[in-house]
Structures are given as C-alpha cells and as structure tokens.
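Saturday, quiet lab. Running sequence design on the structure tokens for the scaffold JK sent over.
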C-alpha cells in the first residue's frame, strides 16, 4: 500500500507564508513526477505546481514568483513554499505523485486546508 500524507495547512493573513509537506510511504519502487493541486469551493481542481524526479518545475501563472515547489528524493517528500499569500489562494491543497509500486499509478493525498484571511 502507498500513502501520501500532507501537513502544513492552516489559517494565515494576506501577505503571509505557509509551507506544505507531503510524504509518501509504503511499497515504493520509484517516484516520478510529484505535484500540488488545489480546489476552491465551487471550482474545479487545478494544478498549482509540479516537479519531475530530475527537479524540473512547472507553475500555474497565478502562483509564479510566489510559490516554490521542491522535493527530497531520499525522504520521498515534496514541499510547497507559499509566500505573499492572497485570499484567492484559499483552497484545499492536494498532493499528487506518480509512483511505481505493486500498483503503478498516480496517488493522491487526503488534502490540507489553506485559508488566507484577515
């Protein structure tokens, strides 16, 4: 079994920062791409940022220059550093990873709430 466990969400004021973490565990042979998605109430889930196993990154236009994705391959963990947060960043943030395991597929975390409000 493979699990993705997220942490680091919470309530923050506009302009503040948060760091999300997502750790993969279980029978993992290799992890390919990892990424963060978010879903706001009444909206579709959207890609926020992604990173390949080699470290190439990709960001949504709305977060470029404010968010940074990184990963620690030795710890099977991906991070999302979020700076200059805006109320429109409020959403449930989900971790996703393509994992080679007994069942090779994309796996999702349970989600962590990020609320940006004064």
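Result came back. Writing it out in full:
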């Amino acid at each position: 079994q493979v699990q993705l466990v997220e942490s680091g969400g919470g309530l923050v004021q506009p302009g503040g920062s948060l760091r999300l973490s997502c750790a993969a565990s279980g029978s993992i042979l290799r992890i390919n791409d990892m990424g963060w998605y978010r879903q706001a109430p009444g909206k579709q889930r959207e890609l926020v940022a992604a990173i390949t196993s080699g470290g190439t990154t990709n960001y949504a236009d709305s977060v470029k220059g404010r968010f940074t994705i990184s990963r620690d391959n030795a710890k099977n963990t991906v991070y999302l550093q979020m700076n200059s947060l805006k109320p429109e960043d409020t959403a449930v943030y989900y971790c996703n990873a393509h994992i080679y395991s007994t069942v090779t597929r994309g796996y999702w975390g349970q989600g962590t709430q990020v609320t940006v409000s004064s």
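Notes for JK: The mean pLDDT is 97. The CA atoms of residues 13 and 117 lie 5 Å apart. Ask whether to fix the surface positions before the next round.
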